[in-house]
User: Fold this.
Amino acid sequence: MCGLVGIVSNDHVAQEIYDALTTLQHRGQDAAGIATQNGDLIELIKSNGLVKDVFQEAQMLKLLGYMGIGHVRYPTAGTASSNEAQPLYTTKPKGFSLAHNGNLVNYKNLYQYITKDLGRKVLTKSDSELILNLLSNELEKIDDITDINKLLKASQEIHKHCSGGYAIVALFSGLGILAMRDPNGIRPLVLGERSNEGRKDYMVTSESVSLTALGFKRIRDIKPGESLFITGNGEIISIESEKKKHTPCIFEFVYFARPDSMIDGRSVYKARLRMGDALGKKIIRENPNHDIDVVIPIPDTSRSAALQVAHQLNVKYREGFIKNRYIGRTFIMPGQRERRASVRRKLNPIELEFQNKNVLLVDDSIVRGTTSREIIKMARNAGANKVYFASAAPPVRFPNVYGIDMAVKSELVANNRSIEEIQEYIGADWLIYQDLKDLIGAVAYEISGVTEFDTSCFSGEYITNDVTEAYLDELEAQRADAIRTLRDSVALQNELQIDAAS
Assistant:
């Protein structure tokens, strides 16, 4: 999962892109980058790290220009490399810079096409670089890249070659910013505007929270399959591909998106409240004589759902864990050992809220189960009599291949386990999951024309219809190789440190 932003303004944009990226930091903590147009040049600064660490004052002063794009990244392949930080840049034709959020499931075939058939050189394993090369190749075919309609038509060729979930922003020197979304609208992208000294400024971003934080008004979401261009003069031109079924990623609403965002016309916050209502009603149906004394959320994304669970059960809602906000998300960390170690550094229990009580812990979802198991141990150590656990999402039984780091079956606690087996594994006295139909109902509540979602990590139904068992097995093998490489690297570093100390 990554975060994107693009701004065309009447003022220099670097600071506002920086500010927008900080609102999207939850979408990626591995790397950050900004590209701006400075005269005829594109200035680009990117590196591993958080936004605040990558950009210092001296660097920001170099990022001049009235339009630009930005990116925050975490690697879906489970690796981190500074040479894969984005935006990417190419000089052909007429230099442009590109940033991408999502994941292509036809990477292997696309790589062969670009390197063998097109004869282009690919320097990284990033699917974003494949998109860059593909777009560059299509643009070289047109006689006048400054003709925006021709540029947009060329960009539509991406949909013919790429399969998966993707949102794209690209900065074209002297022209403007291109924004694109995959034909199923899996990954989010939204357009906003604001008045600025008699003209309009425009922004595209992964989440509407960036718009409101910078004083932009949300206009609409980029449509599935749409290519939209914002010129340097503030003109908007767009074309759309042949429509497919609009199925945005439901996990955005469960976990990734900020609650103060609107995605595809839906409030993330309201969706999470309704998830809690549905989950509370299910608990009453299945255990009407429950002995729950208090409902405690696992901060932060489960708070809205937990509040409504407590309301439905007519029991107390309490904050039982305090979060250290200077520890990164455990979900993003590359190995089980790192995730386990970080949980206790990340959360600290308020023992008074647990002592001699039957506690219902509510989380947004259970992916690997490592965090859930550690948190349950913490609750017991804090003095809880019984620890029940509720998930606002259904069991995550299948890999997510469209841009979320859930690509390996063996890491998913619910894969090939019954609810009872998962309950035993995480050490809960009782475990209850949201039903998929109730989750869909909670998110689809508002009237916005979207009634179906990508629910592949829960249902195993992949909407691009090209995700095979062989593909999933290959991902499993790649992940195992990446973990071995990481462990070997850590072991080598430890040996070098020991040698240096001696």
